[in-house]
Amino acid sequence: xxxxxxxxxxxxxxxxxxxxxxxxxxxxxxxxxxxxxxxxxxxxxxxxxxxxxxxxxxxxxxxxxxxxxxxxxxxxxxxxxxxxxxxxxxxxxxxxxxxxxxxxxxxxxxxxxxxxxxxxxxxxxxxxxxxxxxxxxxxxxxxxxxxxxxxxxxxxxxxxxxxxxxxxxxxxxxxxxxxxxxxxxxxxxxxxxxxxxxxxxxxxxxxxxxxxxxxxxxxxxxxxxxxxxxxxxxxxxxxxxxxxxxxxxxxxxxxxxxxxxxxxxxxxxxxxxxxxxxxxxxxxxxxxxxxxxxxxxxxxxxxxxxxxxxxxxxxxxxxxxxxxxxxxxxxxxxxxxxxxxxxxxxxxxxxxxxxxxxxxxxxxxxxxxxxxxxxxxxxxxxxxxxxxxxxxxxxxxxxxxxxxxxxxxxxxxxxxxxxxxxxxxxxxxx
Length: 430
Ligand SMILES: Cc1cc2nc3c(=O)[nH]c(=O)nc-3n(C[C@H](O)[C@H](O)[C@H](O)COP(=O)(O)OP(=O)(O)OC[C@H]3O[C@@H](n4cnc5c(N)ncnc54)[C@H](O)[C@@H]3O)c2cc1C
Known about the structure:
binds flavin-adenine dinucleotide; five-stranded parallel β-sheet; alpha/beta; 12 helices; single chain; five-stranded mixed β-sheet; globular; FAD/NAD(P)-binding domain
């Protein structure tokens, strides 16, 4: 019961529609009450060390690296738990996409009895143990809505709001570490006729399992790792999924020659140029999976690693979805033109009835909404403007952890660098 309440509160803090409603209610309230009736309090906190925004794996890694150097810090988290993306916004069947050795945070390995690809629950347990081991206690239910550098005092000022909206805190600190993640907000596309559609429409961040869709016809929009896995999950729950494929995509087997595709690629890159490794990956994929374009999944003209490096687009690691497409259990469809009450019209002129639509349309960074600065983060996509591996450090004590498009491995690299840099800064002052 307690867990359910926690999950509901946490989800509400992450749900844009709920927060919009709350804001409207609050606006309405404040217009009808006198200032003395508004019980909002403001407090100011001077922080000795850095403030980290976000208690996901990146924020935890940064805090642990600082702890190892005896540098005190605080973490502000909008949700009511650590790793809210994993605890509240992912589906039940999720496992780490990459082998566990590539997903470790600094100073702590995964337990040896965990499988190569730990389940979501195992990963959450690992993160909880990690926070416990380093004595990391984030301040939960605090959403940072504004942060800017005050050049008069040489410090960052952050404003956070409690989830109930009754407490505002201003934090003043020398160093600000942004750890709000590449996946802070769900991306929901504008589809014509969306209000007319009578069935369920849900982003993957709110999808838990195919159980709810048993016996139903479901359209999954987006063919990244999540979209492909949701289709498989729906099949396993006797639903009938179709997959909207709008772009070209690289699908690779999760394992090749008895090794993880990711691990093998990393190893090959030590000896061979990227183009050659891409060629190798594509040949083995073709031998193992066949020609994916025959199934409606065209490959991009750039190789999978080259594309990842240039655009950050991750190849799909197949865990069985392709076999279901080949077997006709999952149909591939082009982009949606518009929705009607029970029907989806596709751009090729075909119309089909569906009971529900799952939007596997990804996430975006929320940094431009709350961080007021011009030099480090792009206003367009909320990522550091300097390319990897130089995006972790900005001006005036501003840092970013977990924006490398290189998953947990990239976050760990950032976290270590940031702690070293802040330690150096403190030593120079001494
Ligand atoms: C389905 C899925 C599977 C994945 N699988 C893998 C994998 O196998 N291996 C891998 O390396 N990566 C994987 N990733 C990438 C994933 O992004 C990382 O695993 C990891 O969660 C990133 O950690 P993070 O701390 O940077 O971001 P997040 O986990 O998103 O954490 C950011 C935290 O910041 C909080 N926050 C956001 N805005 C504010 C604010 N304004 N104020 C206060 N708090 C705020 C959020 O509530 C959240 O708790 C996967 C991602 C998804 C979506």
